[in-house]
Every structure is written in structure tokens, then in C-alpha cells.
Design goal:
The protein is mainly alpha-helical. It contains 8 helices and no strands. α1 (about 5-25) packs across α4 and α5 (about 80-105) packs across α7 (about 145-155). The radius of gyration is 18 Å and the shape is elongated.
Length: about 180
């Protein structure tokens, strides 16, 4: 793909995440094109259907989280890397949940595409590595599992209300994931 075409595709996906994250199924491809600064034909050239646009947007979202988590995992402080990724997953979850709901509404009954499932699996693996490294460093409680971490992320992602209250709830959950005194 030419660099200008790739840049257009990237702008379309970023705009789609904003539009569908804010408006759900009421979001339009026309609004995506407007925010991306491209014509509607460009959107449909890259993504012939709204379904394909939504799926590509989910994959992009998950892949960005995975890449960031992996990069953090290569750094020095394992606990901080885990906590930053946890916070980022919660803060980005409303857009992701809106996209997943959109995908579910228009997808075939078989569910997510292989590409979406692969991206979700890669993210889960990256989070599990961060969790393990945090536990090995004694910065995350030893008995926490990635399944439990995902339950907590989902619960916080669905929290509604004042941002300050949600931010404090995230702090409380992360405190709960800190090593217990007996560890």
C-alpha cells in the first residue's frame, strides 16, 4: 500500500474509533470520512462495508493496546507497566465496547472474525506477561490471574458516572491487586 493510502487508512480507523465510540450504531461512515479528512469513497475503498470498518477498527484498537503493553513489558518497572496498561484498558474500553456491540449486531451468528479473535488473544497474552512479571517482581499480588484481571477491567469499563469517581475506583482496584502484607 502506498504511504498516502496507508495514512488515509490510519486516519479513517482513528476517526471510526471516535465516531462509533461516541455514537454507537448511530455513527455514520459519512461522519468517519469527515473526521478523517477524506471523501466517503476513500472510506469505502478501504472498507467496502460498515461491518469491515468496525472490525478493522477493533483490531486496530486491540493491536495498539498490545503493542503498548509489550513495549512497557520490556521496560524496567514491571508493576508500573501492569498498572499503566490496566488503566489504559479501562479508559479505552467504552469505545471498544461500543465497537464490539456494533460488530455483534451486524455480524453473522458465528461471532467475531479470526482477525478480531487473534488480536484479542494477543492482547490477553501481553497482559498475562505483564501480570506475571509484576508478580515475579513482587509488585502485583501473587494469586491474581489474568481471568480475574479481565473481570475487573470489564467491571470498571462498564462503570458510569463522574470520571473522578471512576478514577478513584481504578485506584482502589489497583490497590487490591498490590501484594498483600503476608506476601
Amino acid at each position: 500500500m502506498r504511504s498516502d493510502a496507508q495514512a488515509n487508512r490510519d486516519r479513517v480507523l482513528a476517526a471510526a474509533e471516535e465516531v462509533f465510540g461516541e455514537s454507537g450504531k448511530a455513527g455514520s461512515t459519512e461522519e468517519v470520512a469527515r473526521r478523517a479528512g477524506v471523501g466517503i469513497g476513500t472510506v469505502f475503498r478501504h472498507f467496502p462495508t460498515k461491518q469491515l470498518l468496525v472490525e478493522a477498527t477493533i483490531v486496530r484498537h486491540l493491536t495498539q493496546l498490545t503493542d503498548t503493553a509489550r513495549a512497557r513489558g520490556e521496560g524496567g518497572e514491571a508493576g508500573a507497566a501492569f498498572r499503566m496498561t490496566f488503566r489504559e484498558m479501562v479508559s479505552g474500553a467504552p469505545a471498544k465496547l461500543a465497537l464490539v456491540a456494533l460488530m455483534a449486531e451486524s455480524a453473522d451468528p458465528a461471532g467475531a472474525t479470526d482477525e478480531v479473535e487473534a488480536a484479542a488473544s494477543a492482547l490477553r497474552d501481553a497482559v498475562e506477561v505483564l501480570l506475571s512479571r509484576g508478580q515475579e517482581a513482587g509488585e502485583v499480588r501473587a494469586d491474581a490471574t489474568v481471568a480475574e484481571v479481565y473481570v475487573l477491567i470489564r467491571a470498571l469499563a462498564n462503570a458510569r458516572g463522574d470520571r473522578a469517581v471512576v478514577a478513584r475506583a481504578i485506584d482502589m482496584v489497583l490497590d487490591g491487586l498490590s501484594p498483600r502484607r503476608s506476601e
